[in-house]
Design goal:
The relative contact order is 0.22. By secondary structure, the chain is mainly alpha-helical. The chain has one domain (about 1-45). The chain has 3 helices and no strands. This is SsrA-binding protein. It comes from Flavobacterium microcysteis.
């Protein structure tokens, strides 16, 4: 299930790494997206 979510995240959510987002200046919404992508990625690797 997490592998499917990871693929959806890759297609639907923005990639802040390529955009050069500074987490210190990120909004709460951007931080929430980063946290969600991290959570899904960690569980997809299991």
């Amino acid at each position: 299930m997490f592998k499917i979510l990871a693929k959806l995240n890759k297609w639907l959510l923005p990639n802040y790494t390529k955009q050069g987002l500074d987490l210190a200046k990120a909004t709460k919404f951007q931080k929430a997206i980063v946290a969600w992508k991290y959570y899904v990625t960690i569980h997809a690797l299991d």
